[in-house]
Amino acid sequence: TMSVAKELLQMDLYSLLGIEEKAAVKEVKKAYRQKALSCHPDKNPDNPRAAELFHQLSRALEVLTDAAARAEYDKMRKAKKQAAERTQKLDERRKKVKLDLEAQERQAQARAQEEEEESRSTRTLEQEIERLREEGSRQLEKQQRLMQEQIRQEREQRLRGKAEHPEGKGTPKLKLKWKCREDGSKGGYSRDILLQLLQKYGEVLNLVLSSKKAGTAVVEFATIKAAELAVQNEVGLVDNPLKISWLEGRPQGKDGPSHPGRSQGLVVSERDYESLVMMRMRQAAKRQQLIAQMQQEDKVGQL
C-alpha cells in the first residue's frame, strides 16, 4: 500500500484547496470550509467520491495549517517539480544525442541519489504526519465542528420555517376592538399605548388603527407564538378592556375569541410558566403606570 506521504505527493494540496502556495493559515481554513462543506458526507450520503474528496481536503488542512509539516511538504513538492523538469530536459537531450555508457551511469547515480533523498524526505513527512495524528488534529476537529454546527443551524431554520407557517399563510394578524367614547379620547388607546401593550409578547411587524371605524385596529406579529400569547393574555386597560381575535394565520385547533387569564393550554413547560408570570407582572405594572398617566392628564385638563 502507498504510504501517506507518497499519497500526499500524488496530490497538489494547494490546487486541491484552490489557493496560492504562499496562502496564510487563515486563507487555508477559509478555503477548506468552502470546499469541504459542499462535499461533506452528511450532505452527500450516497456519493463515495464526495467522502474521498472530503478526506483529502481534511488531510490538506492538517498538513497546511501545521508549520513543520507544511515546510516538509513544500520541500518535497519542490524537489518533485525539479526532478520532473530534469527528466523532461533529459528526454529532450536523449532525442538529440545518443547517450554513451558513461552518461547512462551518471544518470543512474543521479536517480539513485534522488530516490534516496525522496525516501529520506518521505520518512520525515511520515514522522510529521504521525506527530499530527498523535497530537490529535485540533484544526481539523475545530473546522468539522463548525461545519456540523452550520449544517445543524440550516436544518433548524428550515424546520422553524415550517413550524412558523405550516400552511404558508404568511404572518399572523389579530383584530383589536375596544369601546370609544364621544369625547374624542379614542377610549384611552393610541398607537403607542397599543404597541406598549403588545410588544412584550414578541416582535410587532405592523399596527394599523382603522380610520373608518373608531375603536378597531389590526396588529401583525412576526411569530405565531407571540400572536397566541397576545390573544390569550392581553386584557388592555382596566377601565376599557380590549377584545382580541384572530384575523389571519390562526393555527389549526385554536378556535374562539380571546379568553384573558385562561391560557393554561399554552403553558407547556416550567420555563414558559415562569415567563408568563413575569409577563403578567410587567403587564400589571404597565397598566398602573398608564392609569396614573391618564389620571394626571385628566387633572391637568380640569385646571
TrEMBL record:
Residues 79-98, 104-174 are annotated as: Disordered. It comes from Myotis lucifugus (Little brown bat). It is found in: Cytoplasm; Nucleus. InterPro entries: DnaJ_domain, DNAJC17_RRM, J_dom_sf, Nucleotide-bd_a/b_plait_sf, Pre-mRNA-splicing_ERAD, RBD_domain_sf, RRM_dom. May negatively affect PAX8-induced thyroglobulin/TG transcription. GO terms for cellular component: cytoplasm; spliceosomal complex. The lineage of its organism: Eukaryota, Metazoa, Chordata, Craniata, Vertebrata. This is DnaJ homolog subfamily C member 17. The keyword Chloroplast does not apply. It comes from the Eukaryota. Residues 119-144, 151-170 have a biased composition (Basic and acidic residues). It holds the Pfam family RRM_1. Keywords: Chaperone, Cytoplasm, Nucleus. Residues 12-77 form the J domain. GO terms for biological process: spliceosomal complex disassembly. SUPFAM superfamilies: Chaperone J-domain, RNA-binding domain, RBD. GO terms for molecular function: RNA binding.
